Amino acid sequence: MAYNEKLADKVREALADQKKIEEKVMFRGVCFMVNGKMCICVSEDELMCRVGPDAYEEALDQPGCRPMVHGTRTMKGFVFVGDEGIRTKKQFDYWVNLALAFNKEAKAAKKKKKKP
Fold first, then answer.
1. SS3 string of 60-103?
2. Are 47 and 86 in contact, with CB atoms under 8 Å apart?
3. Residues near 61 by Cβ (< 8 Å), separated by ≥ 6?
4. pLDDT of residue 1
5. Rg for the chain, CA atoms, rounded
6. Which is more confidently placed, 114 or 39?
7. Domains of the chain, each with CATH number or no CATH
8. How far is Cα 93 from Cα 90, in angstroms, rounded to an integer?
9. Rama region for 63: left / alpha / beta (φ>0; ψ in -120 to 50; rest)
10. Residue limits of the TfoX N-terminal domain (predicted)?
């Protein structure tokens, strides 16, 4: 599973001041959980940001942004952002801050019961 380690390091640095960070391997890369909730992922050479349904349409208007499609289903509230949308620090910070803003109101995924 190859993902852009430099991009992942940038995300780690951007999230360094968050209190509860956990990294999980998923979405062909590494996902950063903030306060037990999926926030931002590095998948191959892209960011996958959980921006929420309210910011979703505006996010799609940004350079390098596209919807997250899982199988045949578009995941409203989740977007992929390619290099064109994260080239500058200002662009990168925009996506991190948007994902962190939604993280405050997002609900954590339900814990799966462990099989006996």
1. HCCCCEEEEEECCEEEEEEEEECHHHCCCHHHHHHHHHHHHHHH
2. yes
3. none
4. 57
5. 14
6. 39
7. 5-104 (3.90.1150.30)
8. 5
9. beta
10. 13-102
